[in-house]
């Protein structure tokens, strides 16, 4: 259920959040955020006046509302064609780097992070990777750290795995060349898919707000993955974020954005587009 939120009520919400916290939603695109605020109002059986009153009085409450207004949809190997492209065209180019510094910005519950780690392992690059994964929502980061997902609801993960990693099946046994059991444990009875511990140990998951600027990290990145995050921002904020990503990439580094996203001019001039990836010019 959602409650219709008027423009003035929405502006009041954004203004109150900005006034009482470090979060600034002024440059989010209104449509999605407005819908989520309406959903919060309906779920909490409240109204805009009580919502902004409680936000201004209780910082914990404000944090809990931030966690509720973000859209966290994700999956393992979401958009398999993108992951196939990364496996075939991008990862081979990283083999000459002694360390591979990776930032997943807006990682949600972590499936994208584990997808990349699986590909890195298959490419023999796992040990060289340093991975930081960030999100504004502290609740999704808890799930990401646990690496546990519902099985029945997410059976598609295994299909995606087969499409991207498993490749062809053995004709006589029907088994995939790379079985998912190398990376995932499936407990059908308890309805859980668990990421294997060696993958869980690799990434550092950290709360970070992209609107506030760059993440604190010793050095620049070789790969930044930020998919389906800036679609919730207006064009000027999108450009600011892409510019910040460019400044935080090594020359030759790669930015991967969502398959329905593009980088607009003039920031697009700072990248060379190759398929689903944007490369910062320089030596690779
Ligand atoms: C739709 S999910 C995308 C997850 C994943 N990247 C994917 O494509 O499957 C968007 C994520 O961006 C996060 N997000 C939204 N605004 C953000 C911000 N200002 N800074 C960091 N993360 C943000 C949300 O909390 C959410 O987890």
Shape: globular
Oligomer: single chain
Number of domains: 2
Task: Tell me the span between the first and last alpha carbons.
Answer: 50 Å
Total beta strand runs: 10
Low-confidence stretches: none
State the major sheet: 7 strands, mixed
Helix content: 25-40%
Question: Quick one: CATH superfamily of the largest domain?
Answer: Vaccinia Virus protein VP39
> How confident overall, as mean pLDDT?
93
CATH topology type of the largest domain: Rossmann fold
Query: Structural class, please?
Result: alpha/beta
CATH architecture type of the largest domain: 3-Layer(aba) Sandwich
- Secondary-structure element pattern, one letter each: HHHHHEHEHEHEEHEEHEEE
What small ligands are held by the chains?
Answer: S-adenosylmethionine
Describe the structure.
- By secondary structure, the protein is an alpha/beta fold.
- β9 and β10 form a beta hairpin.
- A seven-stranded mixed sheet has the order 6-2-1-7-8-10-9. It has a three-stranded antiparallel sheet with strand order 3-5-4.
- The model has no long low-confidence stretch (mean pLDDT 93).
- It has helices at residues 7-20, 30-43, 48-57, 59-69, 80-90, 111-122, 138-146, 156-166, 197-200, 235-247; strands spanning 100-105, 129-135, 148-150, 184-187, 192-195, 204-207, 221-226, 249-257, 272-274, 277-279.
- The protein contains ten helices and ten strands.
- Helix content is 38%, strand content 17%.
- It has two domains: 7-69; 80-147 and 201-279, Vaccinia Virus protein VP39 (Rossmann fold, 3-Layer(aba) Sandwich).
- The protein is globular.
